[in-house]
Design brief:
The chain is α/β, with parallel strands linked by helices. It has helices at 3-20, 50-58, 62-73, 96-109, 139-157, 173-189, 208-218, 241-263, 274-279, 282-292, 342-355, 373-384, 419-426, 428-434, 459-479, 500-503, 509-519, 521-531, 535-557, 569-593; strands spanning 35-36, 46-48, 79-85, 89-94, 123-127, 161-168, 230-231, 237-238, 270-273, 296-299, 317-320, 331-332, 360-366, 389-395, 398-402, 405-406, 444-447.
């Protein structure tokens, strides 16, 4: 049950009744009318802008229309008071019985509370991580991985048909560097004398077992191969050791990346390989499609900003008219050697998504790709003639700290701290939750010491502690003879958690406040999904946990507010129903995050 939608529907019915009564004109556009929490809780439970939105259409002053609407809203079931504020806002306050009714609905719906069907089965492609297959994932990848995975879960929770996708960039210079690095480790494994690694190679120890495995499988075969054979369309030598080492190294790195992601609880529905786009001529086909639309031409670009003219070498290039679709400059599609640019391959990849039935696409990129957003959106708009949408979420940097000091790089990785290092240090659940405690477009400090603290300053502990505390209360209540029956917790809330007469005993302002907080959950889930902002759930869960802990602390100071009142089973059952619903909402939120709610804190 979404209480905000319910009262908006009732507001619409009230307006329509006034139209039928001739007090308002017909044909009013109600699409901009909202019912939402007031900016200040003291102003009531709901606020609506209806009078402000409809005043001009109704040819009335906002304040006069607000008073007319207030009279009608005051007659609604469950409304305790209605008042007009400011230039025409209307504030509503509900009777306690309305909150008790909502609490019963939350318990009845169980894990379904907050789920939605707004996605209506619409297909959406969420592409994330997509790191070059040249080594293990680093801690920066963890943020995009968690963000993308939780966003996918959130969209599925509200009814979208979601495909999680990884795009493997296996056709660039990085793969050539990987090939040389693997060949170096291969020769090393065979006991060959090798020159020192060059600056273009990957020095991390993670390639040592790759070289050994290649040596075991192929023996000394690759030593007798030339570096390259016949040159293919990618500029690679087919049949040489470079191609063999590139393919072997890529596959091994993808397996390593899969294992790293599995440690974080992440898996993908689909992997798309850039090299296959080239081999299937999809890149050329995408460019031809743009050419047919008159969007490809040969021209000379202006020198990049900040470069001295003597550093600029003007030359004719094959260009895409991306400025027609909001980009800053037109973009080249071919390199000086005649091969396709990365951008050309990315154009083909997004056209491939569209042709697979994805009109809704979400890309999750790292901080260094921010300047790439406009051109990619321009390409999608041009390719699909506006029939597809692309939302690019750029995840800013993660600063890995320990007691406030930067963490040293990983020897195994060579130049960075790996994702696996962090997961093994603090656990999957901590990493997943903390990565969502900031907006994706803001930098995030991840302090290995702070994220394992048992304090309010540690969000993941604070939320988990609320869930564990509630489980503890339920266990103690179940152990008290004759207090409740049957013992909790149970998969489905037992009848004693939903008795109307007992829930009516929840009258304290903080008890009602907890129900009011839970009323916001369905609305928040839908809003976070539509905005592609899963961090909103982390903020909400922290606030809900804080409200619960606040009531717990009051019970320590005022025995009459404790959850278990041994000489009053009815009041105990009502309060257990209340915190049982809180536990249920927290568990639902953590499930979307891929975090396991704990029943005991150790």
């Amino acid at each position: 049950m979404d209480l905000f939608k319910l009262y908006r529907d009732r507001l619409v019915e009230s307006v329509e009744a006034l139209v039928q009564a001739g007090q308002l004109p017909a044909g009013l556009d109600l699409s901009a009318v909202t019912v939402e929490p007031p900016r200040e809780s003291g102003h009531g439970d709901f606020a609506t802008n209806a009078a402000l939105v409809l005043a001009r259409q109704a040819r009335r002053k906002p304040a006069d229309l607000a008073r007319l609407l207030a009279e009608s809203l005051a007659r609604l079931e469950g409304v305790a008071a209605v008042e007009v504020a400011g230039p025409g806002f209307i504030n509503l306050r509900l009777e306690p019985a309305s909150w008790h009714k909502l609490l019963r609905a939350i318990l009845d719906q169980g894990a379904r509370y907050g789920a939605s069907a707004i996605g209506a089965g619409r297909r959406v492609n969420v592409e994330y991580v997509s790191a070059n297959p040249t080594g293990p994932l680093h801690v920066g990848h963890a943020r995009g991985a968690v963000f993308g995975d939780v966003l996918a879960s959130l969209l599925a929770h509200v009814g979208y048909d979601v495909t999680r996708e990884y795009y493997v960039n296996d056709a660039g210079r990085q793969l050539e560097a990987l090939a040389r690095s693997v060949h170096w480790r291969y020769r090393e494994a065979l006991g060959e004398r090798v020159d020192p690694m060059t600056a273009e190679m990957y020095p991390g120890d993670y390639l040592i077992p790759v070289g050994k495995k290649l040596a075991m499988e192929r023996g000394r075969e690759l030593l007798d191969m030339p570096e390259s054979g016949e040159i293919n369309e990618l500029g690679w030598g087919v049949g040489g050791w470079r191609e063999e080492c590139a393919n072997f190294g890529r596959d091994e790195m993808i397996n390593l990346i899969r294992d790293d992601l599995a440690a974080l609880g992440i898996s993908f529905d689909n992997y798309v390989y850039e090299r296959e786009l080239h081999r299937s001529e999809k890149v050329a086909a995408a460019v031809k499609l743009l050419e047919a639309k008159g969007l490809i031409y040969t021209g000379v670009l202006e020198p990049p900003k900040g470069k001295m003219l003597e550093d600029w070498e003007p030359r004719p290039q094959t260009l895409f008219r991306s400025t027609r679709f909001g980009d800053d400059v037109d973009r080249p599609l071919k390199k000086s050697d005649g091969s396709w640019t990365y951008f050309a391959a990315d154009i083909a990849y997004h056209l491939d998504k569209f042709e697979r039935g994805f009109a809704d696409m979400i890309d999750v990129w790292g901080a260094d790709h921010g300047g790439y957003v406009k051109r990619m959106k321009a390409a999608v708009a041009a390719l699909t003639e506006g029939k597809a949408t692309l939302d690019v979420k750029v995840c800013q940097l993660v600063n890995l700290l320990e007691h406030g000091e930067p963490v040293k790089m990983s020897k195994r990785a060579g130049r960075f701290v790996t994702l696996r290092d962090v997961v093994e240090a603090v656990g999957k659940d901590v990493v997943r939750f903390i990565m969502l405690t900031r907006r994706n477009d803001a930098a995030l400090d991840f302090d290995l010491a702070k994220v394992t603290e048992h304090s309010r300053e540690n969000p993941v502990f604070y939320v988990q502690y609320a869930h564990a505390r509630i489980c503890s209360v339920m266990r103690h209540a179940g152990e008290a003879p004759g207090l409740i029956a049957p013992a909790a917790p149970e998969p489905t809330p037992p009848e004693w958690l939903r008795r109307p007469d007992e829930l009516a005993r929840l009258t304290d302002c903080d008890e009602i406040g907890l129900i009011r907080s839970m009323a916001a959950w369905p609305r928040l889930v839908e809003g976070a999904a539509e905005a592609h902002e899963p961090h909103r759930l982390a903020f909400y869960l922290y606030d809900l946990a804080a409200a619960f802990h606040g009531l717990w602390n009051r019970g320590n100071e005022e025995p009459g507010l404790r959850f278990i009142v041994h000489d009053d089973p009815g009041l105990t059952r009502a309060r257990l129903a209340l915190i049982g619903a809180v536990r249920q909402v927290i568990a639902s939120g953590l499930a979307i995050f891929g975090v396991t709610p704990v029943e005991e804190m150790r």
